[in-house]
Design a protein that fits this description.
Number of helices: 27
Structural class: alpha/beta
Helix content: 40-55%
CATH class of the largest domain: Alpha Beta
CATH topology of the largest domain: Rossmann fold
Largest sheet: 7 strands, mixed
Bound molecules: thiamine diphosphate, 1-deoxy-D-xylulose-5-phosphate, magnesium ion
Distance between the termini: 46 Å
Strand content: 5-15%
Number of strands: 19
Shape: globular
CATH superfamily of the largest domain: Thiamin diphosphate (ThDP)-binding fold, Pyr/PP domains
Strand order of the largest sheet: 9-8-10-11-13-12-17
Length: 646
Amino acid sequence: MPQDAPTHTPGPLLAQIESPADIRALSVEQLPQLCDELRDFIVDIVSVHGGHFGASLGVVELTVALHWAYDTPSDQLVWDVGHQAYGHKILTGRREAFPTNRKYGGLSGFPKRSESEYDTFGVGHASTSISAALGMAKARDLKGTDQKVVAVIGDGSMTGGLAFEGLNNAGATDSDLLVVLNDNRISIDPNVGALHEYLATLSASGKWNALKGEVWELFDKLKGVGGGHLQRLAARVEDGLKAALTPGMLFEAFGFRYIGPVDGHDVVALARQLQRVRKLGGPILLHTLTVKGKGFAPAEADQVKWHAQSSPFDKLTGKSLATPTPAGTKPPKWQDVFGDALIELAEQDDRVVGVTAAMPSGTSLGKMMAEMPDRAFDVGIAEMHAVVFAAGLATQGMRPFCAIYSTFLQRAYDGVVHDVALQDLPVVFCMDRAGVAGADGPTHHGALDVSYMRAVQNMVVAAPMDEQDLRDLLYTALQHDGPFAVRYPRGAATGMALRDGFEAIPIGKGRKIRDGADLAFVTYGSIGQYAVEACERLDADGVRAAHYDLRFVKPIDAALLTEVFGRHTHVITVEDGVRDGGAGSAVVEWASDAGALDGTRVVRLGLPDRFIEHGSQRQLHDEVGIGPDGIVRAARALLGAEAEAA
Ligand SMILES: Cc1ncc(C[n+]2csc(CCOP(=O)(O)OP(=O)(O)O)c2C)c(N)n1
Ligand SMILES: CC(=O)[C@@H](O)[C@H](O)COP(=O)(O)O
Ligand SMILES: [Mg+2]
């Protein structure tokens, strides 16, 4: 357990739960107490250590009821996204380790197969649970075993196309599969789309459900009396009425037996319901209604804010316990620089529109949605759709800026290639959370975008070293008549003074940050700030390093690299992304093609060819050697090795 993780005391019943078998030993009447204690424990831990919050509070009863009614880990429980699985982790042998959640070397914030046999499927990205669960169910059928498979998916995650692909496939099979639709009527931000509206009508169908009972009773009576003609007529009317009025008709049409909506906070009723459902066969969808943040008043009142918490808070009032930063001293977040710049661009140019896939707060596109609701679109958790939708907008002369986290854009790669680049459409990919994302870990690191974007024909691929450059690159992208990708990281930018307005940057033009005779750093993106620090530290050693900021990996700045390779025999490239195919590769490929490599040693610093776990961004940068220490070390090693060889 990391050293700085204080211990927390669970309630008496929770303290006895070492595994779900202990939950199953409880009577159903004891479950409410277990839920109360579990909820308190989650609040206790997150109030000190931070993490995702509202979603786990909302599924406390569902989690307890599932582990009570199902025989986990033999029965397979698949969580979608997994940010709501804190209760599951705590109940499945990880209570004592839970204070290490999301910390460097500690538990993962998401279910992870290597962490526990109860984590049946690794998650972090949304909408995968139904497909994965169906795969497990099919494997079971093929192997002739009899375990049950349950997918738990939220209403937001259900807006993803992948979820529908899973439903479509599952509903056409006779495999036993339970999908629990945990409907709390919110995503990270307010949920959107027609499905959201549909679910709202189902949720409101409580009155109909009551009436329905009476209507079906009447039909049963009618069928039991009178002659055959009356019975047949009653049966036909009943079928017709059911088809027309049954809540969940959409899911029934997908081949699922729909049950619900049920109160997801009545743990006793829910546990009994699940016990009954476990005995049924075929694809079933159980629709539970829950409240995100349940039981913690501030989180219920502001569900967007309490989706996750990064700093400590008072566990009674919710008041932040973080040391306040004096006003005006906090550098802006990269995402806000983007969000503000986009509004300015949109004010200047009617063609500018914004697109996000369910991340208005995270990308700060929400600012434009608030100011220009007609020109900024949240399309739901639907990255592929977002990209193709943007492509469609671009065919009609609009200039879409697609703000998508680097990691989530992976899901839309075919749209990037087939729908945007191949048609040379002017879509701007604003790839937020590029580089290591931090506590969310490997599912969320934006590790691959430099490599995957570099490979795409027609694409301009850029990254700002500071926020002035981000603004200017966005402006440059707007002037460009083809696809353009720009990446920037999670967290705070430099805090530099920004000039008014924008300046176009010639496409493919990097810049020299400083001269130096002993070696050259060639950096790509905001990680270049570490090289600035490294240069200062090397100065103190009497090593004079030059520093070049590439800005573009495609097209790459041939003039700048001609200077680098013309003047230096020691070059270190630095990037916050995988080394394979990344900016360093681009530099070496250019030098090789240009015949400029001759005698020059190039060291490429970046993410290695393995998945990087979670921790703070700085811890992870240091781990892989792209923090200031690592850069200085690499420089000394390179120069030292040469000195030794001489
Ligand atoms: C592919 C993908 N896109 C976006 C996200 C970011 N994301 C994480 S949770 C979430 C909202 C999920 O909403 P819902 O399924 O309703 O769960 P809730 O938080 O309401 O419990 C989003 C958009 C993601 N994890 N994966
Ligand atoms: C679970 C999920 O995908 C999001 O909640 C994600 O953790 C948000 O990350 P940021 O905090 O970087 O917006
Ligand atoms: Mg939801």
